[in-house]
Amino acid sequence: MTAASGGDRQDRASRLCARARRWARALGAVLLALALVSAPVARVRAQADYTEYQVKAAFLFNFARFVEWPAPATEPPADAPVLICVLGDDPFGQDLERAVKDKQVRGRNVAVKRSAQISELLACPLIFIGASEERRLDSILGELKGKSVLTVGEFENFAKRGGMIGFKIESRRVRFDINTQAADGVGLKLSSQLLKVGDVVTPTPAAPEDSK
Fold it and tell me: What is the pTM for the complete model shown?
């Protein structure tokens, strides 16, 4: 009886450990993002120090994981990767490839695509808009109007100008603004974890042109 009870306890303990490992894997990216937000850019400590763009690359992967896109009209091929795209100047180097290496989003591999032309990235679910495109932002967002594309940038007031997630540096920490109106408008659902980490902002209406 004692031996059987001991065996039952071991079985229960094994099941609990397995369940804990599953939860750890599911929440790992969120915990990483929270850790990155709470530490200075130059001294982000998880198991090593991270640079600003390693932190931002990790966030981009987390955004892909914790944003829900509307179901596509046509299901993509089973082996089609989830694309994280960069428009214009690329500040990441190889950091973005390293951030997504051997990782998956909703059972699909993740790949990085770069282009200087928005027309070449219209099939991307997530586009990081480089600083070189700041003056063209209105035109770029116009090209993407009505498309379920998560737009991410890092120049000033990106989210207030109509982008969805705008990186910023506060007290030497990487943080981000979230324009929920823009995301909701094209059917993107941001997880509660992202909304807790980011700062929700209200878009600023474009200033009217001077009448002549």
Answer: 0.77
